[in-house]
C-alpha cells in the first residue's frame, strides 16, 4: 500500500540520533538545528528521558482517563513550578492542533459566543477550528471554512478593537512569536492592549505557545516577555521531546464541568512520564539559561554575515532573513554540509529551532557551513 503523498520529502533517512545529531542509514552525521519543528527540546536520546519512558512502559504504558493517574498531577505541578503560572489548571491531550481545538472550544463554552480572531501569517493547526484560524487558504477545506474566523493584521490594534467590541468574539488566539509564518512578533503595546480588550469584552485571550513554549523563547512561555495574562495557554511540541503530548493551561476563572472536554489518549501514563522527564532535564541542566546564552552567541555571529538582512525571533526560536528564497540554501545545507534547518511561509527565512541544550561549538559549525554554502550559491549564480 503506498503512502498518501502529502509531504515533499528530502532524500535523507534517519535511523538513530543522539544529542544534537541525527544519523542516516549510511551512518552520515547531521547537525540538527531544527529539532523536527521544535519538538526535540532536551536533545535526542537523552539518558534521563530514555530511563523515564522505559521504566514507565515496563510498568503501565496506558489506561483511560476514567481512573486515577497521579502522573498527571505530578506533571501539572511541575509545569506550574517551572512556568510560574500559578493557579492555572491543566487539561492534557496529544498535539498542538488538539490543544488549540480544546482552547477554542472552551472559549466558546465560557462566553457562549462563536467568532474567533486570529492574525495574518499565524498557524494554529490543521484541524477544524484550529485550521480555520490559520492564515493559509490552501489547507482550509470547505468544512473548516464554516467556522466564524476573522484574520487581522498583526499590530493593527484599531481593527482588533473594532472587531472585539462587536461583542460576538469568543476568543483571540495569537502566537507571541509566529512559527510557520516566519518568526514575526507584534509590539508589547499591541499584545497588552488586546489583553485588556479581551478582559473588558467577555472574550478569552489564548496564547498559542505550541512552538514558543517550554523555554524556547528564553522564558518558559513567550507571552512572559509582556505584561499579559492569557485565559488559556496551549502547549505541545517541546513537551514530550518527541513523544506525542499536548495540553492547555486554563485560568481559574473558567469552571470545569464533567464532559466539557475529553480525550482517549491524552495524558496517558507514558506521555506523562515523557513530559515529566523533559521538565526535570530543563530544570536540572538549567536549559533556559542556556537558551539565552546560546541565543546571544548566535545573534552576535549572525550580525557579521552580510547576506543576512534580518535576524528574527527570540531565544532559540530564530529566523535568518535573506533577500532571496532559501529553498536551495536549505538543500545545500542538508546534502552538502549535513545540517538540518527549517523553512517558513516567508520563503526568505531560514528557521533555526535546535534542541535547548545545543552548545556554542554547534552554532559555530552551523555558521561555518552557512558561510561556505552562501559562497557556493553566489558562484553558481554568477555562472
Count of beta strands: 14
Average of pLDDT? 97
Coarse structural class:
alpha/beta
CATH-defined fold name of the largest domain: Aspartate Aminotransferase, domain 2
CATH superfamily of the largest domain: Type I PLP-dependent aspartate aminotransferase-like (Major domain)
Write down the secondary-structure element order.
Answer: EEEHHHEHEHHEHEHEEEHHEEHEEH
Helical content class: 25-40%
**Gyration radius, in Å:** 21 Å
Number of helical elements: 12
Task: Categorize the overall geometry.
Answer: globular
- CATH top level of the largest domain is Alpha Beta
- Please state roughly what percent of the residues sit in beta strands, choosing from under 5%, 5-15%, 15-25%, 25-35%, 35-45% or over 45%: 15-25%
Strand order of the largest sheet: 4-10-9-8-7-5-6
Distance between the termini: 44 Å
GO molecular function: identical protein binding; pyridoxal phosphate binding; transaminase activity
InterPro entries: Aminotrans_3, Aminotrans_3_PPA_site, Class-III_PLP-dep_AT, PyrdxlP-dep_Trfase, PyrdxlP-dep_Trfase_major, PyrdxlP-dep_Trfase_small
Organism: Polaribacter porphyrae
Cofactor: pyridoxal 5'-phosphate
Record the SSE blueprint.
Elements: E1 14-18, E2 21-24, E3 29-32, H1 35-38, H2 47-59, H3 70-83, E4 89-93, H4 96-111, E5 115-119, H5 128-132, H6 142-145, E6 149-152, H7 157-164, E7 169-174, H8 188-200, E8 204-208, E9 232-235, E10 246-250, H9 269-284, H10 287-302, E11 310-314, E12 317-321, H11 327-335, E13 339-340, E14 349-352, H12 360-382
Parallel strand pairs: 3-13, 5-6, 5-7, 7-8, 8-9
Antiparallel strand pairs: 1-2, 2-3, 4-10, 9-10, 11-12, 12-14
Helix pairs in contact: 2-9, 3-9, 7-8, 10-12, 11-12
Cofactor: pyridoxal 5'-phosphate
InterPro entries: Aminotrans_3 (IPR005814), Aminotrans_3_PPA_site (IPR049704), Class-III_PLP-dep_AT (IPR050103), PyrdxlP-dep_Trfase (IPR015424), PyrdxlP-dep_Trfase_major (IPR015421), PyrdxlP-dep_Trfase_small (IPR015422)
Keywords: Aminotransferase, Pyridoxal phosphate, Transferase
Amino acid at each position: 500500500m503506498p503512502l498518501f503523498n502529502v509531504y515533499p520529502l528530502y532524500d535523507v533517512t534517519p535511523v538513530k540520533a543522539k544529542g544534537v545529531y541525527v544519523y542516516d542509514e549510511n551512518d552520515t552525521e547531521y547537525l540538527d538545528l531544527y529539532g523536527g519543528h521544535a519538538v526535540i527540546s532536551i536533545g535526542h536520546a537523552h539518558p534521563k528521558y530514555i530511563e523515564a519512558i522505559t521504566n514507565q512502559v515496563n510498568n503501565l504504558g496506558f489506561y483511560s482517563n476514567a481512573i486515577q493517574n497521579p502522573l498527571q498531577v505530578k506533571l501539572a505541578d511541575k509545569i506550574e513550578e517551572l512556568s510560574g503560572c500559578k493557579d492555572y489548571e491543566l487539561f492534557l491531550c496529544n498535539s498542538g492542533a488538539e490543544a488549540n481545538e480544546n482552547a477554542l472550544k472552551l472559549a466558546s463554552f465560557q462566553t457562549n459566543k462563536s467568532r474567533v480572531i486570529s492574525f495574518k501569517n499565524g498557524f494554529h493547526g490543521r484541524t477544524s477550528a484550529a485550521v480555520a484560524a490559520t492564515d493559509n487558504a490552501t489547507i482550509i477545506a470547505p468544512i473548516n471554512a464554516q467556522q466564524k474566523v476573522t484574520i487581522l493584521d498583526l499590530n493593527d490594534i484599531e481593527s482588533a478593537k473594532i472587531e472585539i467590541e462587536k461583542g460576538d468574539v469568543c476568543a483571540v488566539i495569537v502566537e507571541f512569536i509566529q512559527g510557520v509564518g516566519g518568526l514575526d512578533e507584534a509590539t508589547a503595546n499591541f499584545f497588552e492592549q488586546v489583553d485588556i480588550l479581551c478582559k473588558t469584552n467577555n472574550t478569552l485571550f489564548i496564547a498559542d505557545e505550541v512552538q514558543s513554549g517550554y523555554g524556547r523563547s528564553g522564558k518558559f512561555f513567550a507571552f512572559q516577555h509582556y505584561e499579559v495574562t492569557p485565559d488559556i495557554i496551549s502547549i505541545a511540541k517541546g513537551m514530550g521531546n518527541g513523544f506525542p503530548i499536548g495540553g492547555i493551561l486554563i485560568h481559574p476563572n473558567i469552571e470545569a464541568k464533567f464532559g466539557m472536554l475529553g480525550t482517549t489518549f491524552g495524558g496517558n501514563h507514558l506521555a506523562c512520564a515523557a513530559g515529566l522527564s523533559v521538565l526535570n532535564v530543563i530544570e536540572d541542566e538549567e536549559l533556559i539559561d542556556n537558551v539565552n546564552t546560546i541565543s546571544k552567541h548566535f545573534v552576535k555571529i549572525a550580525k557579521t554575515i552580510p547576506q543576512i538582512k534580518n535576524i528574527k525571533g527570540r531565544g532559540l526560536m530564530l529566523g535568518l532573513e535573506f533577500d532571496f528564497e532559501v529553498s536551495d540554501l536549505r538543500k545545500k545545507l542538508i546534502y552538502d554540509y549535513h545540517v538540518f534547518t527549517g523553512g517558513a511561509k516567508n520563503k526568505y527565512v531560514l528557521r533555526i529551532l535546535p534542541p535547548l541544550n545545543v552548545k556554542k561549538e554547534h552554532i559555530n559549525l552551523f555558521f561555518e557551513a552557512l558561510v561556505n554554502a552562501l559562497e557556493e550559491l553566489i558562484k553558481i549564480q554568477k555562472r
